[in-house]
Amino acid sequence: MADIKYEIIEHLGVLSESSKGWKKELNLVSWNGRDPKYDLREWAPDHEKMGKGVTLTEEEIKQLVHIMQKKQ
Fold it and tell me: What's the CATH number for 6-71?
């Protein structure tokens, strides 16, 4: 498997934390030197390991916010 390079550009917030210290976070992340995207996934305390997650573009995150606002 190829090495995946990432850089957390901006930490936006923590949604939850497991008993083992892993945190579900929303961050702005650059993957393999590409433009940063919004990223929602679980991270180990040292940010060296991560779980599966989802990346969203600016437009997708705006649409998600719109959907959540309609729900209320």
Answer: 2.30.31.70
Task: Note the pTM of the prediction, 2 decimals.
Answer: 0.88
**Segment 18-27, tens digit of pLDDT:** 999 999 999 9
Residue carrying structure tokens 């992340």 = 29
Report the alpha-carbon distance of residue 40 to residue 25 in Å, rounded: 6
Letter for the amino acid at 28? L
Rounded to whole angstroms, how far apart are CA atoms 64 and 17?
22
Q: Which residues contact 5 (CB under 8 A, 6 or more apart)?
A: 31, 32, 33
Domain ranges (residues) in the chain:
6-71
